[in-house]
Amino acid sequence: MTVYDDMMRHQRETGALAQVAGRLGWDQETVMPQGAGDQRAEEGAAMEAVLHARRTDPRIGAWLDAIDPATLDDEARAQIRHIRRSYDRAMRVPADLATALARLTSRSHQAWARARADDDVASFLPVLSEIVALKREEGAALAAGGDPYDAMLQDYEPGTSAAQLGAMFDALRPRLVALRQACLERPQPAPLTGRFDAKTQMALSRKLAGVFGYDFSRGRIDKAVHPFSSGSGDDVRITTRTSEIDPFNCAYTTIHEVGHATYEQAIRPAYRFTPLGEGVSMGVHESQSRIYENQLGRSRAFTAWLHGEMTEAFGDLGLDGPEAFYAAVNRLENGFIRTEADEVQYNLHVLLRFDLERALISGDLSVGDLEAAWNDRFAADFGFAVDRPSNGVLQDVHWSAGLFGYFATYTLGNVYAGCLHERLRDAVPDLDAQMAAGDLSAATGWLRGHVQQHGGLFEPREVITRAYGRAPDEGPLLAYLEAKFGALYGL
Amino acid sequence: MTVYDDMMRHQRETGALAQVAGRLGWDQETVMPQGAGDQRAEEGAAMEAVLHARRTDPRIGAWLDAIDPATLDDEARAQIRHIRRSYDRAMRVPADLATALARLTSRSHQAWARARADDDVASFLPVLSEIVALKREEGAALAAGGDPYDAMLQDYEPGTSAAQLGAMFDALRPRLVALRQACLERPQPAPLTGRFDAKTQMALSRKLAGVFGYDFSRGRIDKAVHPFSSGSGDDVRITTRTSEIDPFNCAYTTIHEVGHATYEQAIRPAYRFTPLGEGVSMGVHESQSRIYENQLGRSRAFTAWLHGEMTEAFGDLGLDGPEAFYAAVNRLENGFIRTEADEVQYNLHVLLRFDLERALISGDLSVGDLEAAWNDRFAADFGFAVDRPSNGVLQDVHWSAGLFGYFATYTLGNVYAGCLHERLRDAVPDLDAQMAAGDLSAATGWLRGHVQQHGGLFEPREVITRAYGRAPDEGPLLAYLEAKFGALYGL
To answer: What ipTM score was computed for the predicted complex, to two decimals?
Structure first.
């Protein structure tokens, strides 16, 4: 056994335990008895303590020091890169601070949930102030002299910076605001109306998952209030939800989660339980879920096929054929809530949060001024006023959980999806004909080969650059959105 | 923090992790994707490694040495007793031997499954010889000069001995053989025939679980090929199965598992995650599942109520009223398989295995002579010949898993159930009237108060002795079986 082998054995065991902890999370959201919550919290904490001890094991530092990367192949060097990053991160945060943050975010989640339910911002602000203060402290520790917010971004998107994201996002914002406004000034297409049986929605969900390449022998679909995908390798489970009045929610939630899940299922089996054995970043993960859901799933070609499937499943949908169905799938609506937003408006929600949280961490914005800043920005970009905090600054769970740096990856994923979609169209010239026949295999196969199989082998930006052929930029996403919605709304 | 507090904190974390490992087992048997088996094996092994390291942590020895039990209350002394036993056990088995056994039993399970499928004893005997050899070595290490088989029994029923069990079992055997023979010589009651909808069976299963006191807010029922109960405290799940032609299987499997599960649910919440927070032994556990299933669930009074429920659920059952239904529930049949046996014959299957495995471990019986010994004993007790190994020596998984000492607890549980039932009848004089109305609350409440709530507080035999009023013996079980089946078969 070499030193590298010793280290990788430790990593694989840690990786296996992390899968167990993840499975516990799945259990909690899908099948756990309602009265088991307190006990489960202790079980989860015990698992976290085990994982934390393994991730900060001083042997890791000694192993890393003893290994000469020049003697290793590309895969092993990539493993080292991940292990070094994770170990350095753990070492830089003082144990007291980590404990204080864990305690605070467990308490603050409840404070946030209560504040949102009561539309009471004031009750949440003192807690949020504590969170921001501790996160700034953590960010400074992680940055080791660099920029704290940049350091936070590394937890979700290694290799990126606020300046890089900010430049992209600043280029997106005016054109998205203009596109949104132009669409909403036009006559709106008819929405889907009616009642739709939940069991039939779940049957369609299973069919869609199969069409998008989900391997049911290594996964399963259940329902959850807040759908998610969980697990890696041979046990990757997805969840979805049904709404009696909105079958699109179930269908597109499923396709979105299948994007995440097939990424995990497609990673080379040899990487199992290692740092290479998971999707490489939140942004790249989101690029897969978004391209499945939007560029493919909400395309004119695919919705033509879906229109047939849904008509067969539910009977007459009350829409005038596949074109009206395509318009109903893609119609814009004024709304306050990020998670309910369409392709055009979604990124404006993200950009707002990115700019505000960056200012909170830099100190340019105080927690006391946050609500006003949110409401001003919302009115500027969306053209109407936030009516209450639960539709505004209190709507998302992220900040209450200390997840600063996370939001940006949603839009970065869309930008990446735009790049990948442009190249995919080149690679599969008759993609529309295939999708219109319900055949996604060439598209998902291309993504599997160019992105998914690599897992953590390349840095996030590098895997997109390799697939796209050059450095990613916001151009393809903007061109795609303007062309698609321009045609839909007759701009 | 005292030394005792330090030790208990370690124990509680270990207990929480053990619950996680148990949940992983539940997942595997109920919801795990079929292709996840290999990955899951590694995840389970990683959890076992964590648990093993915690259970053999040398700090436990130091803590135990530093604590003066005289300074502790009864509960703390009971905790120490369990921790000492578990730690000494772990310390006595050399690491090499433990590893060799773990490896062998993982391999031998497959060898056994193949041998049973092919009815090929010869292919399994070499593996079984290795298991017996290693188990004897382990038994000798555990016994530290005492009897190896007695040492093995402690894993399942602390405080018992082969001599004590052997005396009980030798008293049972001739009277059970005679009772069995007398019943089978009489005309047999009509069995239940027909087809029974699986969903209706599961609905009835849920109703029965509730009637027997199962708390659904802290548990759930799913299906599994080999039903089991799993978990402690606030997350205790049961599984059952359905057979289209045998709804009794689902009903009585459910009641049996509810006996196990309510035991775990009833233990004092303060004991959570500690050695006192679980059922105290296999024998006491089985006493609960058996008294729920048999003395209560298969009683004339309760089956009168169940007859009404099943008639309502399935329509006319084709049996001539509640008495014929009671007879059908309790009818004897010749059979080879332990797990399918009725109350009278079940213990004869167990006694056979106890005597044979005891002889295997002592060296009085060689593995090569095992099949012949099995077949001779079976013919002597059951009056007909084993037709093939899968109906004989290969039918049970236990020996392939190295579980020597386990079988005895099945009959010990029945003996304990007999004792508890006798005292319960004194305590609840109108029990039959209550059960005939579908009201089990007094019976299950008595068991909760006298047995279940204590968890591991008392030694197994002590908790039964306290509830029964004197040391347990086989008398009540024999008297109950002879009276019940004597009346049923007009002996």
So the answer is: 0.93
For A111, the domain range is: 3-142
The tokens 């399963």 sit on which residue? A220
Torsion angle, alpha carbons of B322, B324, B328, B331, to 10: 120
Task: Let me know whether A61 and A175 are in one domain.
Answer: no
Compute how many other C-beta atoms are within 10 angstroms of the C-beta atom of residue B384. 9
- The CA-based angle B233-B239-B241, given to 5 degrees, is 165
Same structural domain for residues B132 and B170?
no
What does DSSP say about strands A237-240 and A229-230: parallel, antiparallel, or unpaired?
antiparallel
Using CB atoms, which residue from B32, B39, B237 is nearest to A272?
Answer: B39
User: Could you tell me if B269 and B378 lie in one domain?
Assistant: yes
Q: Are residues A149 and A104 in the same domain?
A: no
CA angle B87, B91, B92 (to 5 degrees): 120
Instruction: Please state the rounded mean pLDDT for residues A408-416.
Output: 98
B35 contact residues in A (CB cutoff 8 A): 215, 217-218, 234
By three-state DSSP, how is residue A238 classified?
strand
Question: A26 with A66: CB under 8 angstroms?
Answer: no
Looking at the 3D structure of chain A, how many domains does it have? 2
Give the span between the Cα atoms of B403 and B396, in whole angstroms: 11
Q: Residue A286 annotated as binding?
A: yes
Q: Is A334 on the interface with B (CB under 8 A)?
A: no
Q: Are residues B367 and B252 in the same domain?
A: yes
**Spatial CA neighbour of A336 closest among A354, A321, A348, A325:** A348
A257 belongs to the catalytic site: yes
Residues of chain A above pLDDT 90, percent: 98
- Boundary (domain end) residue, out of A124, A142, A160: A142
- Does position B246 have pLDDT exceeding 80, yes or no? yes
Can you give the pLDDT at residue B157? 98
Q: What is the pLDDT of residue B452?
A: 98
- Is the pLDDT at B402 greater than 80? The verdict is yes
Do A419 and A476 lie in one domain? The reply is yes
**Residue B288 CA: distances (Å) to CA of B235, B261, B264, B292, B394:** 18, 9, 10, 6, 28
pLDDT beyond 80 at A1: no
**Residue A229: its H or E element:** strand A229-230
Q: Give contacts of B33 with chain A, Cβ < 8 Å.
A: 216-220, 234-235, 237
pLDDT band at residue A107, thresholds of 50, 70 and 90?
confident
**Together in a domain, B217 and B246:** yes
Does residue A125 sit in the same domain as residue A204?
no
C-alpha distance from residue A149 to each of A144, A161, A267, A285 (Å): 12, 8, 30, 21
Strand partners, A222: A239
A105: confidence class by pLDDT, cuts 50, 70, 90: confident
Tokens at B478, concatenated: 């024999």
pLDDT computed for residue B107 by the predictor = 86
Helix then strand then coil, % of chain A, to nearest 5: 70, 0, 25
pLDDT at A106: 81
The residue out of A142, A164, A193 marking a domain boundary is: A142
Whether residue A35 and residue B217 make contact (CB cut-off 8 A), yes or no, is yes
Assign residue B329 the CATH number of its domain. Answer: 1.10.1370.30
